[in-house]
Amino acid sequence: MNFNDLDDVATPSTADAREKVSARARQLRTRRRALFSGVAATTAIVCAFGSMAYASDNGHRANVAVPPKQDETATTTTDDGTGITTPTTESVATTTTIKPTRRTHGGGSNGPDATTVPNRGDNSADISMVHVQFLRGPLAIAGGDSAPVSYTVTNDGTWTVRIPRNPSCVGAAVWVPEGNRLWPVPVPMLACTPTTPSDPIILAPGASYSETDTVHAGIEIGVGTWLPSPPGDGFYYPFAYETAPFTLPVHVTASPNPPFTDTRPTDVTIRSGDSKDLSFAVTNNLDIEEAFVSVGPQISGGDNQQCDDSPNVNLAHCRFTVLAHQTVTLTAHVHAISADSGPLAPGEYDLEWNELTLHLTVTP
Amino acid sequence: MELVGVTAWTPDRAAAAHADDFDASFDALYVAAYRAAFRLLGSRPDAEDAAQEACARACVRWRKVQRLDAPVAWVVRVATNIAIDRWRQLQRDAARAVDAPTEVPALDGRRVDLHRALESLPKRQRDVVVLRYVVDLSEAETAEALGCAPGTVKSHASRGIAALRAALGEEDDR
User: Fold this and answer.
1) Do B162 and A302 lie within an 8 Å CB cutoff?
2) Which of A124, A207, B51, B52 is deepest in the core (most CB within 10 A)?
3) What's the whole-model pTM score?
4) Does the CB of A88 have a partner CB in chain B at under 8 Å?
């Protein structure tokens, strides 16, 4: 796979970039100083609340839950994985204290209290005062199944907002990352084309919009054909925002109609230093071809090969396809040898194989 | 409350002490970061922006970054993270652009496919595939950038590139 043709034909000017980088570095240092100060202030506030709670408990007063106000915010940090933190601010309110008159796709004079909501004029891109209420708690759904989800989105600001939706790119398909589990690769996915006509929701101040959507625990890989999601935790997001409060957690349970059946041994006994073949069968339960990527019990060599090219290919990281309702049988070669190529010491071993455990008993 | 860590921190002096080292390394860092970002974004202004931001972060943290075996790998990783975030933003902008089509340029089709395929990978695999294959870092450099063992890179890379090929509908080019 070659990405050289994605290169720029020109070489960037480093001379021009030096000054800009220098200026940015100065800004970053300033922001880091501000962040340190912010953390110190937050710590002071938390300490004060902690002391108050302790005093209340000693006085045998009942705990009182205080809902957060609409304009309360929490300062957190995000790390891009490089150790660099940047401050972000997001609303943590789950209870609305501002109650504008609700209308659908309308708005007008009965907007929210102007004394408690910042008036920023007409800023359609500012969604800071838009709130989404899902009319149910976290959703649990079996892979491949679907369920209706209703939500109401409300503009609590004093300006008109435009909330982008693109039905082909967002929303109803919930997919839990498969990790190292053996699972069909979701191809071909139906194209998400950003230029597909979007269907934005335009909300006047105080207006709200309600919708019922159908959430699928899977990805549509052909018109009307859905590949069930692996089990696990994902989320549904009806708009182009993948962060709270625009997301609903979805727990995907194992599909009652799994897209494939994986048959393989779970226990094997082998003499130290010997090799053994293990049959491993995958049956496609769908009406279309499925592609898989295997993570085998061996991790050396065998760099990205077709599993069925050769009887000697390593099953680690190879890929294979199974036609509709067909079964492919592969052979795994288990070698009771140690990392230094000597005989593996007798004993009990567990090998991870596509997130399933192969129990290996090595005899002398 | 003690604020020792805050008041004792003097980033300007620390940065100045290592300014010469950073300056000497700048060209290599910037070109590598730009190249990585351009492959992902396909836009000179956006790639320059990502490369400048990555180099600025390296400059601020140069005391630590220069101790790495491959500072370039660190900068490239930061640039790719910024580029991927920028791409997502461009996609969102493009989705909104239907109402104002002149505001956002059309996204390059091949890169759209590439990013869609990358998004289908688990995060660790995606990180490895981007650095190892899209940006062409070596196994050792990728391991350095991600803070993991070369063997881990190898296992993620193999599976990741297989999944990427499958998602892109490409056959093996062995």
Assistant:
1) no
2) B51
3) 0.46
4) no
Q: Is the peptide bond before A188 cis (omega within 30 degrees of 0)?
A: yes
What distance in Å separates residue B140's CA from the closest CA in chain A? 16
CA torsion B95-B96-B97-B103 (nearest 10°) is -120
- How buried is residue B116: exposed, middle or buried, by Cβ count under 10 Å (0-12/13-18/19+)? middle
**Which of chain B's residues have a Cβ under 8 Å away from the Cβ of A18?**
26
ipTM (interface pTM)? 0.73
Q: CA–CA separation, B42 vs B107, rounded Å?
A: 9
Q: Helices B19-41 and B109-119, interaxial angle, to 10°?
A: 100
Kindly give the residue spans of alpha helices, DSSP state H, lying in A95-216.
Answer: none
Substitution target in B9, B92, B102 with the highest count of A β-carbons within 10 Å is B92
Whether B57 contacts B8, CB under 8 Å: no
Question: Which SS3 state, helix, strand or coil, does residue A4 take?
Answer: helix
Cβ contacts of residue A148 below 8 Å, gap of 6+? A212, A213, A214, A215
For A146, which DSSP code?
E
Using the Cβ of A1 and the Cβ atoms of chain B, whether some distance falls under 8 Å is answered with yes
Q: Taking CB atoms and an 8 Å cutoff, what residues of chain A touch B78?
A: 80, 82, 84
Mean pLDDT, chain A, rounded, equals 64
Rounded Cα gap, residues A301 and B151, in angstroms:
11
What is the C-alpha end-to-end distance of chain B, expressed in Å?
A: 62
Write down how long chain B is: 174
CB contact under 8 Å between A17 and B158, yes or no, is no
Burial tier of A169 (Cβ tally within 10 Å: 0-12, 13-18, 19+): buried
Structure tokens belonging to residue A327:
């079964």
Q: Which residues of chain A have pLDDT under 50?
A: 32-120, 168-171, 189-197, 298-304, 309-314
CB of B18 less than 8 A from some CB of A: no
Residues 182-211 of A with CB under 8 A from B: 185-189, 192-198, 200
Q: Which of residues 55-84 of B touch A (CB under 8 A)?
A: 55-57, 59-61, 64, 74, 77-78, 81-82
